[in-house]
Amino acid sequence: MVDSQPVKVAVIGAGNIAREHIRAFSDISGVAVSGIFSRTRSKAENLAAEMGIAKVCGSIEELKAVSQAQIVVSAVDVISMPKVIMECLDHDWLLFVEKPPSLYLEEASVIREAAIAKGKDIRIAMNRSFYSTTRMVLSEIGRVDGRRIIMVEDQQDPEMFVKLGRPAEIADRLMYGNSIHLVDYFRIFARGVVANVNAKQENIGSRPEMVHARIEYDTGDLGIYNAFWNQPGPWSVTVHVPDVRFEMRPLEECRRQERGKKPEQMEADLWDRNFKPGFRAQAEEMVKVVREGKGNVPVIDDAIKTMKLIRDIYGK
């Protein structure tokens, strides 16, 4: 497919994340969001009216038939995601799904095997891979020889999550449902294969307070993970290479510091200022997959790799 040919995108889900995907894809020349489906039809109708989507559908099967989409975006909640993915595998389109594909590693592996059996490609919306800060750091450290030390600070509050009325199943597995955003930075920045994970959980009674992990790679790279549970704390990522460090705190911002010098701000690009960070760049890459047969978008194997590391850290 050449750039002049149109690309049609269908969307499943009608929440804020669906809206952000629609905004990102709609900004690309020659791309149209041609249909939407949600279990709550009124929400789909409202979002379609807001974003100028012509077709509101009553099922995934109808969505495929009416939209004629080459890409389907699944932006449903994580509990519904496995069922939606499996149904989408019955149709001829490229799946682009929010992370994680499941709260359970075993179920994600079943989804992967089903996709392989049906010859389907599942791409995962690991949007932090596409933050301009992430891409700038990757570019800089790619020019530096020597060991990489990646330090990640996570924070989750399942107790508050439940108090706010969110599902207890998700609260129990926030290390998959939400910490995947942070743990995935080890996949992004570290080289090689995980050789050893030494993890420790500190509890107050039966309640987890802190999780530490040292992640060693066969290349010599090192990951340090600290997660605070049921208490406040910022998300941050720091990458150290010889004589230079990069700090992403918040993740959408980055400071570069050379040895003996003060930190300098690295400016985020316009896409990350005008769209939900990472979304516009990953939409561009998804369209490349359709138009050119290539695009740097994580596949389900990447999500499973990160989920395996989460299991090694948390033991569940």
Question: What features would you describe in this structure?
Answer:
There is one protein chain. The protein is an alpha/beta fold and 316 residues long. It folds into two domains: 141 residues, 3-Layer(aba) Sandwich (Rossmann fold), CATH 3.40.50.720; 136 residues, Dihydrodipicolinate Reductase, domain 2 (2-Layer Sandwich), CATH 3.30.360. Helices cover 38% and strands 27% of the residues. The chain is built from 13 helices and 14 strands. The strands form two sheets. The protein has an eight-stranded mixed beta sheet with strand order 8-9-10-7-11-12-13-14, covered by helices on one side. A six-stranded parallel beta sheet has the order 3-2-1-4-5-6, with helices on both faces. Helix 1 packs across helix 12, helix 5 packs antiparallel against helix 13 and helix 10 packs across helix 13. It is globular, with a radius of gyration of 20 Å. 40% of the residues are buried.
| Proportion of residues in extended strands | 25-35%
Q: For the CA atoms, what is the radius of gyration? A: 20 Å
Total E-strand runs: 14
**CATH third-level topology of the largest domain:** Rossmann fold
Shape: globular
CATH architecture of the largest domain: 3-Layer(aba) Sandwich
**Which range best describes the helical content: under 10%, 10-25%, 25-40%, 40-55%, 55-70% or over 70%?**
25-40%
User: What is the topology, as strand order, of the major beta sheet?
Assistant: 8-9-10-7-11-12-13-14
Q: Extract low-pLDDT stretches.
A: none
* CATH homologous superfamily annotation of the largest domain: NAD(P)-binding Rossmann-like Domain
- Helices, by number, come to 13
Spatial separation of the terminal alpha carbons? 43 Å
- Provide the domain count: 2
Helix-strand topology string: EHEHEHEHEHEHEHHHHEEEEEEEHHH
For the sheet with most strands, the description reads: 8 strands, mixed
Q: On the 0-100 scale, what is the average pLDDT?
A: 95
Q: Indicate the structural class.
A: alpha/beta
CATH class of the largest domain equals Alpha Beta
